[in-house]
Amino acid sequence: MSRFVFRNGRVFDGNDVLPASTTVVVESDRIALVTQDDVPVGEDDRVVDLDGRTLMPGMVQCHFHTGFGPDAGNAAPYLGLNMPPAYLGMVAARNAQIALDFGVTSIIGSSNGDLLDVCLKEAILLGLTKGPRVLPCTREMMASGDVADGDNRAWFMGIRNHGLVRRVDGVEAIRQAVREELGRGCEIVKLSISNGHGSHPVPDWNYYRPEEIRAAVEEAHVRGALVRAHCPTRTGIIECARAGVDIIDHADRIDDEGIETVLEAGATIAPSLLWTTRYLEFADGWDYAQGPFPIGDGFPESRARTIERLEQVRRDFDHTRSMLPKLAEAGVRLVLGDDYGFAMMPHGDYASEMDVYVQNGIAPLEVMRWATRNGAQAMGRRGERLGTIEHGKLADLIVVEGDPTSDVLVHRDPNNIRMVMKDGQVEKDLLSSDVTH
Ligand SMILES: [Zn+2]
Asked: Same structural domain for residues 276 and 199?
């Protein structure tokens, strides 16, 4: 049987950089050998001379909106969701191709309408389009009165019955909604616990009660599905972790008690700090002579109101940033993923999020662990055979020009991602000229 033999490069295995002499052998869809010994090469083997480049696990984007975009520009908070489902399907296919091109071999959905994630997953499995492995998400379940509740303010999020948001109140209604959406093929449920994060200040109260969160978790877990929650509040983080929510999105106002509870529960946190960074930069540069600041609560607001809101957002952001090294040190599982496709957030711009964490005190090597090992762990049992380069794991591998464990910005240019392999299949290959048979 023909094999791939990767040698003569740097191997980052998802945990650490292995000794320089490491060779990795892929047979069929899995990693057959990770060794420092000489590997005899057969006639059918394909030898990949890494020539000093880095071999690492395929990356996992853990907060992925397949239908957002294309790049909404600087002042259009519509996420592309005001378009018909067929168009969004094509956007999703393109976003999946972009992700793969940047070395992402798995994505965890983070809410979408129109059953987009499920359809995208099927389309990729059928070969209709290329893309990463998809863990498909439900629509975002929101309590009545949520700031993004379709009939409330952000009307575009809930176009007819198919939009991003599903309004659900009460334990029984939540059970029904979870059953219905998982029955349609979703594998992770998204809940909106409170307003806040990015462009909105974090309140000190939550829309959903603990018994509603527990009901969602119970219905999901019994079916082997996961639950994630948009959860910026101090109390929400604790309630979600206690209820068994698997991925806590953003966790803006986390404190010591929150860290302890999240650790005890083994939950994952996706901080998604790129969006807030971009938003505040945009706000700093806004010229009010042009008119009211364009990305707000849904209605035009006075300058004084905008400035007050932005100050609160900045306070929340400074808090989250200051907690980040503490979270990492305590051993909280942190992962990558953000609202790509939203204004100022083109799909594929993953290096910028990585860089935000480096700028806030996280070592590049650690950020690469978040991108690989941690991301796979966040996928639950679906990620058990992913995320690290080890004997027997699935061959999701990428070859990167340079050393991402010391410089995450090498991920900025897709030309630096020289090869992408998913399930042992070559999905991208810019190395062909370097390959000897
Ligand atoms: Zn999101």
From this structure: yes
DSSP letter string over 358-423? HHTT--HHHHHHIIIIIHHHHTGGGGTT-SS--TTSB--EEEESS-TTT-GGGGGSGGGEEEEEET
> Residue 289's pLDDT band (boundaries 50, 70, 90)?
confident
Question: Ligand 1 center to residue 357 CA distance, Å?
Answer: 18
CA 111 to ligand 1 centroid distance, Å: 7
pTM of the model: 0.94
pLDDT digits (tens, 9 = 90+) for 14-37: 999 999 999 999 999 999 999 999
- List pLDDT tens digits, range 309-329: 999 999 999 999 999 999 999
Distance 227 CA to ligand 1 centre (A): 14
Domain check: are 364 and 418 in the same one? no
Whole-number Å distance, alpha carbon 339 to ligand 1 midpoint, is 5
Number of structural domains the chain divides into:
2
Q: How far is the CA of 415 from the centre of ligand 1 (A)?
A: 27
Residue 43 belongs to domain spanning: 3-57+388-434
Query: 332 by DSSP, 3-state: which?
Result: coil
Do 216 and 115 have their domain in common?
Answer: yes
Give distance in angstroms: CA of 55 to centre of ligand 1: 30
Edge-first strand order for the sheet with 425-429 is 10-11, 54-57, 397-400, 417-422, 425-429
Same domain, 46 and 63: no
Report the alpha-carbon angle 344-203-274, nearest 5.
Answer: 25
Indicate the SS3 state at residue 325: helix
How far, in Å, from the CA of 432 to the mean position of ligand 1?
A: 37
CATH number of the domain that residue 348 is part of? 3.20.20.140
CA 110 to ligand 1 centroid distance, Å: 6
How far is the first Cα of the chain from the last one, in angstroms, to the nearest whole number? 14
Measured between alpha carbons, how far is 173 from 180 in angstroms, rounded to an integer?
10
Q: Pick the last residue of a domain from 368, 383, 398.
A: 383
**What's the CA-to-centroid distance between 202 and ligand 1, angstroms?**
15
Q: What's the 332 CA to ligand 1 centre distance in angstroms?
A: 20
| Element at 316 (helix H, strand E) | helix 303-330
CA of 302 to the centre of ligand 1 (A): 27
